[in-house]
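Supplementary Methods. Inverse-folding protocol.

Structures were first reduced to a discrete structure-token string of length 362. This string, shown here, constituted the complete conditioning input.
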């Protein structure tokens, strides 16, 4: 089955396609066959996703001549750690996988990040294929080669850039997402529009009912548009040495919120939404952004049912200290992505003290 839309991440010999379609999951094996991969495949997933889609994927792989072995990890960011990474390594060894094998990550961002890092480091690197089944994974985390696991001190502090050979995003899988998960994923879509594409912001404002109702055309357009924009950014700056860091808009504070609440209170997208609301307010405070634009961004987040206020029970000083552990920190300052207008950003380097002052004022 042909994908309805195809986007290419342009990285020379390491370029790879992102296939976006509705009902394309069964074509995975057919799509992998021309890539010249070895026959052994590790399908890394979680129990919920495995029950929904695992058998279809295994059947598709087997029909194309692959030999899949399934590795299940628990759902939830709190399991994206070194202990479960070691578990995956052990299962890959038990399955007899070699350097020609392929790791297929079937699931959301946790599965994609952990399985991706396992693929980056097992036997010094094996093939990776991303099959994202959540909105946040389809439009963001499966694209760009970022893989990693968390430490107690912070999110994604251990990781590697390891690009997939293919990303297959079947938008039909989004139909099984709980409404809260869908809204959390939409935070990443809002982020993409706010920092890169005014037209996408207008679409999100004008088509919110269709998007929240998961009308097929609206969702397919949204996933394709976001994938296209992220592919352009990654092609421009593969390892986040400069320009790609704009994708961290809302994430610096969002990751701190997740860390302080031990990944048990807020979904990733919800934490990022709070981070974006803070970022636009900070941009106004810094004299970089018109207050009306900040209000427009906050109104859009609210339109999709996302939180825009940092919980009062989170200490501002603790948040500032948590940000201090962020991997984007350099020479005592954090590179904070601010907004100057819809579609334009600017980096502000803040000390912990400056950030805490801003948190207390805002």
């Amino acid at each position: 089955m042909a994908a309805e839309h195809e986007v290419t991440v342009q990285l020379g010999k390491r370029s790879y396609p992102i296939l976006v379609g509705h009902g394309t999951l069964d074509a995975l094996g057919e799509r992998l066959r021309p890539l010249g991969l070895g026959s052994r495949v590790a399908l890394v997933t979680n129990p919920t996703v495995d029950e929904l889609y695992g058998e279809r994927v295994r059947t598709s792989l087997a029909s194309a001549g692959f030999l899949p072995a399934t590795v299940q990890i628990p759902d939830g960011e709190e399991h994206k750690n070194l202990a479960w990474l070691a578990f995956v390594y052990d299962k890959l060894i038990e399955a007899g996988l070699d350097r020609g094998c392929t790791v297929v990550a079937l699931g959301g961002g946790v599965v994609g990040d952990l399985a991706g890092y396992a693929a980056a480091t097992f036997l010094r690197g094996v093939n990776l294929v991303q099959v994202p089944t959540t909105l946040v994974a389809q439009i963001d985390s499966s694209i760009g080669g970022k893989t990693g696991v968390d430490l107690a001190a912070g999110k994604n502090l251990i990781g590697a850039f390891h690009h997939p050979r293919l990303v297959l995003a079947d938008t039909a899988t989004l139909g099984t997402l709980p409404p809260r998960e869908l809204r959390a994923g939409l935070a990443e879509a809002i982020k993409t529009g706010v920092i890169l594409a005014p037209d996408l912001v207008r679409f999100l404002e004008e088509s919110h009912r269709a998007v929240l109702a998961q009308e097929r055309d609206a969702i397919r357009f949204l996933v394709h548009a976001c994938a296209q924009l992220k592919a352009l950014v990654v092609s421009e700056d593969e390892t986040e040495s400069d320009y790609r860091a704009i994708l961290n808009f809302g994430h610096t504070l969002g990751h701190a919120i997740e860390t302080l609440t031990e990944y048990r209170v807020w979904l990733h997208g919800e934490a990022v939404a709070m981070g974006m609301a803070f970022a636009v307010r900070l941009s106004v405070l810094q004299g970089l952004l018109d207050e009306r634009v900040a209000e427009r961004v906050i109104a859009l987040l609210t339109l999709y049912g996302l939180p825009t206020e940092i919980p009062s029970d989170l200490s501002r000083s603790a948040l500032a200290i948590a940000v201090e552990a962020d991997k984007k920190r350099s020479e005592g300052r954090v590179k904070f992505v601010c907004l100057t207008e819809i579609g334009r950003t600017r980096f502000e380097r803040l000390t912990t003290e400056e950030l805490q002052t801003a948190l207390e004022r805002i």
